[in-house]
UniProtKB/TrEMBL annotation, chain B:
<feature type="transmembrane region" description="Helical">
    <location>
        <begin position="192"/>
        <end position="210"/>
    </location>
</feature>
<dbReference type="InterPro" id="IPR001851">
    <property type="entry name" value="ABC_transp_permease"/>
</dbReference>
<dbReference type="Pfam" id="PF02653">
    <property type="entry name" value="BPD_transp_2"/>
</dbReference>
<feature type="transmembrane region" description="Helical">
    <location>
        <begin position="320"/>
        <end position="338"/>
    </location>
</feature>
<feature type="transmembrane region" description="Helical">
    <location>
        <begin position="240"/>
        <end position="260"/>
    </location>
</feature>
<protein>
    <submittedName>
        <fullName>ABC transporter permease</fullName>
    </submittedName>
</protein>
<feature type="transmembrane region" description="Helical">
    <location>
        <begin position="136"/>
        <end position="155"/>
    </location>
</feature>
<keyword id="KW-0997">Cell inner membrane</keyword>
<keyword id="KW-0812">Transmembrane</keyword>
<feature type="transmembrane region" description="Helical">
    <location>
        <begin position="59"/>
        <end position="82"/>
    </location>
</feature>
<keyword id="KW-0472">Membrane</keyword>
<feature type="transmembrane region" description="Helical">
    <location>
        <begin position="102"/>
        <end position="124"/>
    </location>
</feature>
<feature type="transmembrane region" description="Helical">
    <location>
        <begin position="30"/>
        <end position="47"/>
    </location>
</feature>
<keyword id="KW-1133">Transmembrane helix</keyword>
<keyword id="KW-0813">Transport</keyword>
<keyword id="KW-1003">Cell membrane</keyword>
Length: 346, 347
């Protein structure tokens, strides 16, 4: 134990505040971009980060519990299709349409949860399959076509209203509220603690009397609910919903994955925070904005987000690899080795 | 005294079977071919005589060939307990685009360049996952995104065509002609496409690698139990690197044939291959927990996926419903797969 602590001492600060450092770096880079520090630009950054935030919350929640939910992107698309389909095609009021969209998200979350918790399928394999089921059902429902609000822009306009002084729209405030709710649930409630224990050590969780199956199902349902809600809000905000949302360009799933990993969530679960994910999503969207002004090429965004993700994964992997090397070594021998060679690593 | 008697009684009562019957082994190994036969019968019922006509069989085999070539490689990654190679789509796209781009330098350089580009992906994946133990799903997803960025930036997000790339020089045009003819070459009076021959060759190579070589034996131990493999002195990182390299090599071959068949090099070339290939491999009886399954079975899985798609198209199921069916079939297969593992006390 002693040796591992010494090796990662200086890396601890960077690991914990990676998201904030990334955001600071992007903000500094923003100094060199034209019109980055304007209210209008910040409003647009906040608004375009909203969908990613909802997906990121769902993804982070699952990853803290030690699972991966690859279906989050399609879940959001399904929510978008359902809310406009119910409102425009079936003529239901907004409230009912929203409830149906969230309910459908919860249903597929339940489906995922049962596959993972009861059938014991690896979560990423199960959700890889659910993706296609959702894609099929969604396309059958809307016949592969785009659905729009068709002139009923009341709610769309209401969501775009900005708060005085701050560059926050109502849409972003709802997002912010969701982040706060999930942060509080994860850190202050019994369910939140259970999520961390489940991800940290399943055996401990079982010995502590936590119903792991039930909690896993609830986690996947929450992920489905938050993604369905996020997709529904996005559809209302933009006024349209297409079944190929996110298939052109950067898939929302990849943004969520990148943000989750930059935010310091452990790949194996047990560690992580929704707020850090939110901060890294803001940083990523701000990076897109900076790059649009400086580079001006959409393709560069994909390359940069990919490099950021790959860099983080390699960094985590290497630090874990080096940590593994020192496990089982005798501390006094290790200290001697360090003194003789002057090297930290073996 | 009484204790011993009780023990003896317990021993007598224990009638669990420890031997494995020959029949169950055959059903386990060749069970997938029963499904193939059933699908053949279903196809015959639906389409009567047309289903076994040369035309339809050729179209099934051609449609299967691209997935099949990829599956021969992916089987090794699944076998080594690394679940899935999510960077397959971009490996296919990258090798296809590289091959198309190099056409002006001659057909040999083009094919070798495509293969090299794809294989390089496997080397990177293998080193990161085999040597440094990165999470296989997250790393390959991340690398897929990086490759997608590289491909889009390098070619400006546009598609490239062999005859356009070749330009005006007659030698390059001839090479482009040759390149597009790869997927249109037939043997035996037009009944056996070159792609199918390559697929069968790769499956034979995979079979020999997995069952007849030291690498195959080591891979089985690495896949079944990584720690045991390491403690028994197997070079685990080398084994996993080789598995990934073979997987990416097969993906590169797929990429070249794909580009040749569609006459386009585009970043969307390999879309969905990670999913469909995994379906075929798992259908063929490869276990997700690694170290279990046969190449013969995987070949059957590839046939089933191809025939299923063919029958769905013949019946006239629209694309969207096909997504649903493929997803459900995938989940069902994975469930069966995991369930049998749980019965064995694993996973």
């Amino acid at each position: 134990m002693e040796t591992t602590k010494k090796v990662k001492l200086n890396a601890g600060f960077i690991n914990d505040y990676r998201a904030y450092i990334f955001l600071a770096a992007v903000l500094v880079a923003g100094l060199f971009a034209n019109n980055f520090y304007t209210v209008f630009n910040f409003t647009s950054i906040f608004n375009s980060s909203a969908l990613y935030t909802f997906i990121g919350i769902g993804f982070t929640l699952c990853m803290i519990a030690g699972h991966m939910d690859l279906s989050v992107g399609y879940m959001a698309t399904l929510g978008a299709i359902m809310v406009l389909g119910m409102h425009t095609l079936s003529g239901l009021p907004w409230a009912v349409s929203f409830i149906i969209a969230i309910g459908v998200g919860a249903l597929f979350g339940l489906f995922n949860g049962v596959l993972v918790a009861k059938a014991k399928i690896h979560s990423f394999i199960a959700t890889l399959g659910t993706q296609f089921v959702i894609k099929g059902i969604m396309n059958i429902y809307c016949n592969g076509a785009e659905i729009s609000v068709k002139g009923d822009y009341g709610l769309t306009d209401a969501m775009a209203v900005t708060v005085p002084v701050l560059p926050f729209s109502v849409y972003f405030l709802i997002t912010l509220a969701t982040v706060v709710i999930f942060a509080v649930v994860l850190s202050k409630t019994r369910f939140g603690r259970n999520v961390y224990i489940l991800g940290g050590n399943l055996e401990t969780a079982w010995l502590a009397g936590i119903k792991s199956d039930k909690n896993t199902i609830v986690i996947f349902m929450l992920s489905g609910i938050v993604c369905g809600f996020g997709g529904a809000l996005y559809a209302v905000y933009t006024g349209t919903a297409t079944p190929t949302l996110g298939e052109k360009g950067i898939a929302p799933l990849m943004v969520a994955l990148t943000a989750t990993i930059i935010g310091g969530t452990d790949i194996n679960g047990g560690k992580g925070s929704v707020v850090n994910t939110f901060i890294s999503i803001l940083a990523i969207v701000a990076m897109f904005s900076v790059m649009t002004t400086i580079v001006g090429k959409f393709e560069m965004q994909i390359l940069f987000i990919g490099i950021a993700l790959a860099f983080c994964v390699i960094y985590e992997t290497l630090s874990k690899y080096n940590k593994q090397k020192t496990i089982g070594l005798r501390p006094n021998l290790y200290n001697e080795y360090k003194k003789e060679t002057g090297r930290q690593r073996i | 005294m009484t204790n011993k008697a009780a023990d003896a009684a317990a021993v007598k009562k224990d009638v669990r079977r420890t031997d494995i019957s020959k029949r169950s082994i055959i059903v386990n190994k060749l069970g997938i071919y029963i499904v193939v036969a059933i699908l053949l019968v279903v196809g015959l019922i639906i389409k009567q005589g047309d289903y076994v006509s040369i035309d339809n069989l050729r179209s099934i085999l051609s449609a299967v060939a691209l997935t099949g070539i990829c599956c021969a490689g992916l089987a090794f990654v699944v076998y080594s307990a690394n679940f899935n190679d999510m960077s397959l789509p971009m490996t296919i796209a990258l090798s296809g685009m590289m091959a198309v781009q190099l056409i002006p330098f001659g057909i040999v350089v083009s094919v070798l360049g495509g293969l090299a580009a794809g294989t390089l992906v496997g080397v990177v994946n293998g080193v990161l996952i085999g040597k440094f133990r990165a999470n296989p799903i997250i790393w390959t997803l991340a690398f897929n995104l990086v490759l997608s960025g590289i491909v889009r930036v390098a070619w400006g997000g546009s598609q490239i065509y062999p005859d356009v790339v070749a330009g005006d020089s007659p030698a390059a045009l001839a090479a482009a002609e040759q390149f597009t003819s790869f997927a249109r070459t037939y043997f035996l009076n037009g009944s056996l496409p070159l792609m199918v021959v390559v697929m069968i060759v790769l499956f034979v190579v995979a079979y020999i690698l997995l069952t007849r070589t030291k690498f195959g034996n080591q891979l089985k131990i690495v896949g079944s139990n990584y720690e045991v493999a390491k403690l028994s002195g197997i070079n685990t990182s080398k084994t996993i690197i080789l598995a990934y390299v073979f997987c990416s090599f097969c993906a590169a071959v797929t990429g070249i044939f794909y580009a040749s068949q569609t006459k386009i090099g585009a970043y969307s070339n390999g879309e969905g291959y990670d999913f469909s290939c995994l379906t075929a491999v798992l259908l063929g009886g490869m276990m997700l927990s690694g170290g279990k399954g046969t190449i013969v079975g995987v070949f059957g899985g590839v046939l089933v996926v191809g025939m299923l798609n063919n029958i769905m198209t013949l019946i006239g199921i629209p694309t969207f419903q096909q997504y649903l069916v493929t997803g459900l079939v995938f989940l069902f297969v994975v469930w069966l797969n995991t369930n049998s593992e749980r019965k064995l006390g694993r996973a």
